[in-house]
Amino acid sequence: MKKLTILFAIQFFTSFLLIVYEGKAFSQNITITTDSVIQTSPCAGSNIYIPFTVSGGPLSFTNVFTAELSDPIGSFSSPTNIGTLPYWNSALIVATIPINTTFGLYKVRVIASHPAITGTISPNSILVAHIAQLATVSIQPKDTICEGDSVTLKAVVPGQTYSWSTGETTRSINVHQSGVYTLTLTDNLGCQTNSDPQRITVETCTGIYNNGNINSLTIFPIPGNERITIEMYLLNSVPSKIILRNITGNILFISENKLSIGQYGQQIDISTFAEGIYFLEINIGEEKIVRKVIKN
To answer: Which DSSP state fits 224?
Structure first.
C-alpha cells in the first residue's frame, strides 16, 4: 500500500511538471498582435475599438484579454486598463478613454492573463485633443419636495445639445416625480459626458410638523395674484428667515425676525411680479421648508 502511494505521488508530480512545461512551451508560441485602433472622437471619455489577433495556442479558458493605454508620449511604464474581454482567439475590445485623460498621443496594446502574454503595440496613435466639459447639474430649490411641487434640474455649463433620461433636450427641466435623473451633455466640440445620477424625492407633506419648532404651517392662496399669506404656529421662540426666490434663484423678498411662541402671520406682496413659478423658503431655527408659489 505504501509503495502504491509513493508511485501515485511520483506520477502526479511528473504530470504536474509536464503540464507546467507544456504551458510554458505553449505560451512561448502564442503571440498577440494589436491591430490599428479605430477612434471615433478625439475626446476624453469617448470609446475606441481595438481589434487584435492571436496566433499559436492554446490559451486557458480562464484567460482575460485586457486593453492597456500608454501615457501621453506612448510609454507603457505605467499603463491604464481601459477595457477587457473574456477568452477568445481573435476579437475586438470596445474600450473607453478615461474622462481624466490629458492632451497627448497615446498608444494601445492588448495583453493576456493566462498565460501572461504582452501583445504588440498598436501601429497607430490615439489623439486626445479635448477634455469634455463635465455635465454638472444644479438642483433648485432642493432634492426633496412635497407632492404638487417641482424641482428644476439645470446643466451648470452650457453645451451644444442636452439629453436627459426623461427624453427632454432642453438645458433645464422641471421634475415632479421621485426618481433618479441623469444628463448627457455634448459640448461645442462634440465631446459627451454624463452627469452623476441626481435623486429626487417627492414626499407627502401635511400641515403638521414635529420638528420641535413648528406645529402647523399654512400658505395661501396658491395660486395667488396680489399677495400670499403665511401662517404658522410656533412651539419655541426662534430666529426666522423667510425668502422668496424666482425660478432662477434670485431673491425677490426677504424677512428676518426673532419669533415668539404662538401664532405668526406674514404677508408678501406679489402684485408686481410676473406670472409664473416662485419658491418660498421658510427657515425656522435649523429647519428649512421650501414651497412652490404660483403667481397668476
So the answer is: B
Map grid coordinates 509513493 to a residue: 6
221-278 pLDDT, tens digit each: 878 889 988 888 888 888 888 999 988 888 999 998 888 788 888 899 999 999 888 8
% of the chain exceeding 70 in pLDDT: 84
Which stretch of DSSP H or E encloses residue 95?
strand 91-96
Distance, in Å, from the CA atom of 286 to the CA atom of 21, rounded to the nearest integer, reads 72
Distances (CA, A) of 223 to 79, 132, 296: 60, 42, 6
How many helices and strands in the chain, by DSSP H and E? 1, 28
Amino acid symbol at 257: N
| φ and ψ of 6, to 5 deg | -65, -40
Exposed (0-12), middle (13-18) or buried (19+): which is 82, by Cβ within 10 Å? buried
Position 284, amino acid: I
Other CB atoms within 10 A of residue 91 CB: 15
For the chain, domains (ranges, CATH) are 30-130 (2.60.40.10), 137-203 (2.60.40.10), 214-295 (2.60.40.3080)
* pTM beyond cutoff 0.85: no
C-alpha 87/C-alpha 61 separation (Å) is 6
pLDDT tens digits for range 30-77? 899 999 999 988 888 888 999 999 998 778 889 999 999 999 999 999
Distances (CA, A) of 134 to 72, 130, 172, 195: 21, 12, 16, 7
d(CA 135, CA 130): 15
Q: Please check whether residue 165 is in contact with residue 185, taking contact to mean a CB–CB distance below 8 angstroms.
A: no
CB atoms within 10 A of CB 227: 11
